[in-house]
User: Which sequence fits this backbone?
């Protein structure tokens, strides 16, 4: 497949993601997962996507844009353009994912009052919100199962070999979930501190102590 076609695919797929993702960056995960599975010529695995989700959440900036940048860079760097191709791929995917929002926001800004008072638009938004929650919840369950039970295929509920259970990661989740809701002097712990603390815990547990990942 030619390099031009790959970049065209990146642009078109991420343009569709930006156009149909409603409800924030996490709502785009089902679409991204489907695209990665469909485009085997990108040589981009679901495991890489899982890793990039963690990186995109941990780095500054909007989650959706960060993820698009990482995916675009990885796909582009595998072309004949090499490192420059990675930079170009990151730009194409990032630009494509924000372009629909940019166009829509400009239109909405111009026609704001009509959109705001239109009962059909308000009704459509009220209908969309529950679906967005369902899409996000489905991805949370899928991602959680993939991390805690890495060799379980959630689509078919089949297991390759003996069932592996990532109990250390489950403990980390169980500890950090309530930590994110604890208030100190009436303020919740900032997510950045939780991310840095979790990174430190990961270094100690998996790097220094070399705790087993699975049982």
Assistant:
């Amino acid at each position: 497949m030619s390099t031009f076609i790959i970049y065209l695919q990146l642009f078109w797929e991420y343009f569709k993601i930006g156009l149909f993702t409603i409800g924030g960056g996490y709502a785009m995960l089902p679409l991204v997962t489907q695209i990665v599975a469909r485009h085997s010529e990108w040589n981009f695995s679901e495991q890489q996507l899982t890793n990039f989700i963690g990186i995109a959440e941990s780095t500054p900036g909007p989650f959706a844009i960060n993820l698009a940048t990482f995916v675009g860079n990885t796909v582009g760097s595998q072309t004949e353009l090499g490192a420059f191709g990675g930079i170009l791929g990151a730009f194409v995917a990032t630009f494509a994912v924000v372009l629909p929002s940019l166009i829509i926001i400009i239109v909405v800004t111009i026609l704001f009052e009509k959109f705001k008072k239109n009962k059909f638009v308000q009704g459509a938004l009220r209908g969309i919100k529950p679906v967005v929650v369902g899409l996000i919840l489905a991805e949370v369950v899928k991602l959680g199962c993939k991390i805690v039970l890495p060799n379980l295929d959630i689509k078919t509920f089949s297991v390759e070999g003996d069932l592996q259970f990532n109990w250390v990661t489950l403990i980390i989740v169980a500890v950090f979930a309530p930590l994110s809701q604890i208030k100190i002097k009436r303020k919740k712990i900032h997510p950045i501190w939780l991310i840095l603390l979790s990174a430190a815990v990961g270094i100690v547990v998996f790097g220094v102590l070399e705790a087993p990942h699975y049982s």
About this structure: Residues 23 and 131 are 9 Å apart (CA to CA). The radius of gyration is 20 Å. The first strand starts at residue 152 and ends at 153. The chain has a mean pLDDT of 81.
